[in-house]
Amino acid sequence: MDARLTAEQDEMRRTLRALLRDRCGPRELRAALDTPAGHDPALWRALADRLGLPGLAVPEAYGGVGCTATELALACEETGRALAPSPLLATSVLVTPLVLALGTDAQRAGLLPRLASGALTAALAVPGTALATALALTGDNGGDWAGGGRAGGVQARRADGGWRLYGEVRQVLDGHSAGLLLVAAHTGGFARSRTRLFLVAGDAAGVTRGRQTALDATRPQGWLQLRDVPAELLGEADGGEDAGEVLGALGSAGDAAAAVLAAEAVGAADRALERTVEHVGQREQFGRPIGSFQAVKHRLADVYVQVQAARSAAYYAAWATVHGERAGGLALAQALEALRTAAGEAIQLHGGIGFTWEHEAHLYFKRAAGDELLLGPVHRLRAWVADGTGLFSRGAPPAASLGALPGGA
């Protein structure tokens, strides 16, 4: 692995950071959060038109840039620094890889160019609070998280030569505003239940949706109610019978998403640390900056080491994704822990202003807590990796390869 950035990658990061500095400062961020969509459509268009961000990891044949998850992770590190609210995570990190992996030729040709251009936004709708489970980050995704044929979740049945969906989904990232919904539903009843993915237009008849309050306002979430909603099966009709293919694609997408989210969390942690260092260099106590006190130096040095370690793990996980290995879950755990520590220290060392609504410190802390609720928590991410490698099993091998992680190649 070569950890050095290429000239193109470095230029992309500089350009994106400059754009976000100009278009997503503290004032612009708060204004965007108060809109019905929860993000600034003008900023999203700028990210798409000027930098091609939504299509970074989409093949050129479908109108994308043709890069890899590594470039997408580097881009998300910058959006994480600014806590930029946008449909990037829901559209490009969660939905686009699934369409690319499971879609028919016609579905790819019809959807990927619009997703890559940013003209179409998308959301992955997973029933309940099971996103981490569905993506195989905290356990086996072969269970009944999508409904299991019983009441609850989302059910799908054949009708008039097509499919109809029934059910309710909450905690859907950008589900209230996405133009395309990718809904996980169960078919076949209780006896032959299997999970499938269905494409649903955001404005389809029978879809009721809205924005819901979330701990992290920079991660807008919506709720969905589906009542006799027409849907299109993602993939071939006969291929949909293979539940393992769908679950495998969700697992692969989950590991890549974890690597990207780890980089995003590292960006947020780095910015929280940077702001704290600036503050302790200016705030004085007993006639000297508090940053000159040894106790404060030690605390910030510990945070710096933790952030740099998390960055190394995130970069490796992104590289591993491209090379057929899986390390996203472990990197995400380390990055979320670093962000939580950096944000907590930021609140404490900012003193009286650190916990006020007007200051941005609490937004970074809520990002850490919100991501853990959505994709963790940290101890479960690590426990699943430990279980998959047999770390605590009697007679376990002395060293397990990353390729042997749960769902690994």
Roughly what fraction of the amino acids lie in strands? Answer: 5-15%
Number of domains: 3
What is the averaged pLDDT score? 88
Instruction: Assign the CATH superfamily of the largest domain.
Output: Butyryl-CoA Dehydrogenase, subunit A, domain 3
The top-level CATH class of the largest domain is Mainly Alpha
If classified by CATH, what would the architecture of the largest domain be? Up-down Bundle
Tell me about the biggest sheet?
7 strands, mixed
Topology-level CATH name of the largest domain: Butyryl-CoA Dehydrogenase, subunit A, domain 3
Estimated helix fraction: 40-55%
What structural class is derived from the secondary structure elements?
alpha+beta
* CA-based shape: globular
Protein name: Acyl-CoA dehydrogenase
Domain Acyl-CoA dehydrogenase/oxidase N-terminal: 6-118
Keywords: FAD, Flavoprotein, Oxidoreductase
Cofactor: FAD
